[in-house]
């Protein structure tokens, strides 16, 4: 154990002082062009995992189907974690199976992502995945599937979330990475609580996040999603974190940012990240979400608000704002919760006004 911590400390020091480095990965990285922002819609997973009421699989699948029609190209659809820890995600095998069996209709190919915390989760995932991706299946109709692993920038959160230390979480990932690469499945890696921890407070050392990102990229991760799980992030902290990541040799195209909007700072932090050249962001339709292991943290930044922000800056997401806003309103109604997207609600109000005026003519 102590040697792993020593190793992390060494990496951390290296991240502080090292010249820029490059990482070899096996799959093509996404690098959206400068005026294009890639959105990873996490509503069906991060958005639903914390809901206390049981949500029918049909509703989850309907959410995925409706999101697929909006122009979103990456949707996180479930997670193969322990049902004792996160009961809401227990149906992820069925979700994956249905997506593979009858992919939701969409105008362009969609990538679906699933979380796996350990080899047991990977086994469950692969038993469904391999069953559907036999040689008889046409690769043009099979949707793209990716895996996500997750760790955190503080020991306390890692322990609460995954019942292990940070070093142990990295050890768990090594066989997952090897087996995923053998199956040609890209792997995304999350680093939670990078801008504030519910157990250790708002000041999380950005060098710790940089060290972890370096380890995960060296292990073969195709993308690092750096998460502000608690929403404690601010504009200066976001800028400092990004500068630290870049100084450690991590490139813009390696990174996604994942903001929760607990303090209403998510869009401000997004602008800071855009100014630093980041072009991939995670969000959840209707502002759904919250992590069961981050008490008090509220939803992800709403996808509708993110799309509106990006378009207000003259950049593109290829997402149909009206369709997306309808999805946010629909899923909020299904869950009996308020729609948290201001831009979504404003868009719908505008649509209703427009149709009333048309009806008068
Ligand atoms: C990581 C473990 C599994 C370790 O959990 P553990 O209890 O240490 O594992 P274990 O190996 O001792 O196993 C305990 C029981 O769980 C079972 N088990 C063990 N693994 C699995 C599995 N994969 N699938 C199904 N079952 C599993 C295992 O079979 C056993 O069952 P029992 O013998 O007691 O009947 C557990 O801590 C866990 O599932 N945690 C869930 C963490 C989670 O889902 N958190 C939310 C997602 S992360 C997040 O939201 C943050 C993110 C990504 O959005 C970014 C951000 O905003 O920060």
Automatic annotation (TrEMBL):
SUPFAM superfamilies with a match to the protein in the record: Aldolase
Q: Where is this region: Disordered?
A: 340-361
Return the CDD domains for the record. DRE_TIM_HMGL
Query: Which reaction equation describes what this protein catalyses?
Result: (3S)-3-hydroxy-3-methylglutaryl-CoA = acetoacetate + acetyl-CoA
Q: Name one GO molecular function term.
A: metal ion binding
Q: Which Gene3D superfamilies match?
A: Aldolase class I (3.20.20.70)
Q: What pathway is this protein said to act in by its record?
A: Metabolic intermediate metabolism; (S)-3-hydroxy-3-methylglutaryl-CoA degradation; acetoacetate from (S)-3-hydroxy-3-methylglutaryl-CoA: step 1/1
**Annotated ranges, domain Pyruvate carboxyltransferase:** 37-325
- List, alphabetically, the PROSITE patterns matched: PYR_CT (PS50991)
Per the UniProt entry, the Enzyme Commission number(s) are: 4.1.3.4
Its domain of life?
Eukaryota
The top EC class is lyase
Identify the Pfam families for this entry: HMGL-like
Q: In its UniProt record, which GO terms are filed under biological process? A: ketone body biosynthetic process; L-leucine catabolic process
**Per UniProt, which keywords does this protein have?**
Lyase, Metal-binding
User: What is stated as this protein's family in its record?
Assistant: Belongs to the HMG-CoA lyase family.
Protein name as catalogued: hydroxymethylglutaryl-CoA lyase
Source species taxonomy: Eukaryota, Fungi, Dikarya, Ascomycota, Pezizomycotina
């Amino acid at each position: 154990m102590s040697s792993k911590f020593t190793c992390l400390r060494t990496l951390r020091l290296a991240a502080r002082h090292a010249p820029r480095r490059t990482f070899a990965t096996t799959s093509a990285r996404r690098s959206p062009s400068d005026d294009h922002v890639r959105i990873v819609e996490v509503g069906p997973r991060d958005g639903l995992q914390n809901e206390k009421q049981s949500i029918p699989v049909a509703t989850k699948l309907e959410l995925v189907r409706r999101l697929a029609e909006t122009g979103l190209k990456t949707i996180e659809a479930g997670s193969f974690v322990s049902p004792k820890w996160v009961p809401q995600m227990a149906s992820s095998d069925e979700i994956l199976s249905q997506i593979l069996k009858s992919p939701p209709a969409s105008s362009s190919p969609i990538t679906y992502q699933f979380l796996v915390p350990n080899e047991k989760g990977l086994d469950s995932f692969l038993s469904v995945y391999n069953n559907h991706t036999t040689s008889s299946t046409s690769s043009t109709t099979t949707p793209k599937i990716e895996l996500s692993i997750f760790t955190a920038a503080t020991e306390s959160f890692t322990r609460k979330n995954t019942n292990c230390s940070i070093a142990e979480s990295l050890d768990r990932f090594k066989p997952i990475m090897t087996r995923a690469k053998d199956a040609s499945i890209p792997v995304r890696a999350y680093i939670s609580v990078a801008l504030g921890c519910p157990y250790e407070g708002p000041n999380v050392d950005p060098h710790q996040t940089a060290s972890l990102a370096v380890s995960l990229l060296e292990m073969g991760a195709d993308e690092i999603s750096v998460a502000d799980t608690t929403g404690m992030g601010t504009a200066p902290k976001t800028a400092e974190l990004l500068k630290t990541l870049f100084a450690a040799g991590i490139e813009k195209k390696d990174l996604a940012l994942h903001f929760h909007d607990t303090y209403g700072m998510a869009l401000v932090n997004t602008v800071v990240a855009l100014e630093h050249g980041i072009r991939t962001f995670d969000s959840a339709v209707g502002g759904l979400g919250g992590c069961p292991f981050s008490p008090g943290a509220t939803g992800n930044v709403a996808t509708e608000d993110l799309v509106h922000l990006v378009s207000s800056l003259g950049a593109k997401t290829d997402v149909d704002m009206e369709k997306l806003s309808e999805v946010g309103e629909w899923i909020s109604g299904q869950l009996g919760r308020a729609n948290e997207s201001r831009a979504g609600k404003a868009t719908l109000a505008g649509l209703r006004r427009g149709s009333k005026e048309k009806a008068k003519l």
